[in-house]
Amino acid sequence: MSGSRTSLLADRFSPFGTTIFTEMTQLAMAHGAVNLAQGFPDFDGPEFIKHAAARAIGVGSHGQNQYARMFGVPALNAAIAQGFASRTGLNVHPDSEVTVTSGCTEAICAAIMGIVNPGDEVILFEPYYDSYRASIAMAGGVARCVTLHAPSCADQVPPRCTPLGGEGQFWFDPHELAQAFSERTRAILVNTPHNPTGKVFTREELKLIGELCIRHDVLAITDEVYEHLTFDPDLPHVHLATLPGMRERTLTLSSLGKTFSLTGWKIGWAIGTPELSRCVRAAHQFMTFATATPLQWGAAEACVLGEPAREAIATLVADLSRGRAFLSGVLTACGFRVHAPAGAYFIMADWTNVRSGGKRLGDRFSDDIAFCRWLTQEVGVAAIPPSVFYEHPHHGRSMARFAFCKRMETLEKAADRLKKSFI
Fold this sequence. Notes:
- The structure is a single chain.
- By secondary structure, the chain is α/β, with parallel strands linked by helices.
- The chain is 40% helix and 14% strand.
- The chain folds into two domains: 11-45 and 309-422, Aspartate Aminotransferase, domain 1, CATH 3.90.1150; 48-305, Type I PLP-dependent aspartate aminotransferase-like (Major domain) (Aspartate Aminotransferase, domain 2).
- Strand 11 (355-356) and strand 12 (359-360) form a beta hairpin.
- Helix 2 runs antiparallel to helix 10, helix 3 (74-88) runs parallel beside helix 10 and helix 11 (307-333) runs parallel beside helix 14.
């Protein structure tokens, strides 16, 4: 090609490179490592949902295999609206206030593309799911980050700051959050339960966020894909949209994949007022237009949250609780400082005081990326280096993220390798 460009890649994507999930999974495969990096289960979802999708495909007979409505098949929209109403008490119109997307990742991108103009600011809590920053870049927006500090960082509490958050949880400085709002702020993106920290935002924290949104006339986008996966009865999931004044300014995003261990189906959705839904649909119609039709019919069986779905969720939460306790115990025994999650299915753990061969790993490795590559290649256990999810990477360099959404035999295999190296 002629011209002075050295790369065909558009400039907007140049800061992001290949996603860390792809990099670490490929490294795990190359070295035969137990993959506790990428957050997908190594077990299957409930049979009743898969059977519903198979019926919709209609093998041997006419099935539901043509384009769905742009905003979702009627049965799924109705199921999502019904399930949301039962949990929140908010009545939602299935046709004008629910939009089905190809996973929550598309819902995030469509929401940001639909409401953010070039130069608008979007507030994020760091660490953040990596698609947030890329979506803001695609919209021409500007990210403003507020740090979630590890529970162990008591020495970082600024003077006169009263950190908000449940005991032992990642916390933020309310003053820093308030300062992040400006006349250019268009939206704030809140992920609760939170990936990668496992933090469940408290009602007090969400109330502050809501008050700031109302004061500054800012929209809220909530990523609630782990809404059913919480472990502490004292820290239940709270929907921001249910707080005073937030129903009309909140886009609530979620998906089927995490709740029912069907991450490959990529069935997500956005719930918001008709005006907010039009914003999402303006982008969605030109991204994917419609999501896989038979999978939407299968998802409808789950999203209404009948008895089979409630039993499946309860079983999953119980299994995850056991995996969480087991892996936390193993990591602690190996010398990691574990930050036990209140929700989602990841453990953040400080590795710097772990010893191997008599040497402290914090003296051996300069950051979490070097540590996680070594852990994958030499120990045979893959984890995610979380500094890539920070605007200020030094906050995450002492930690690694381990996924426990795995069969117990997988976790036991990882445990054997960790113990052999660190105990």
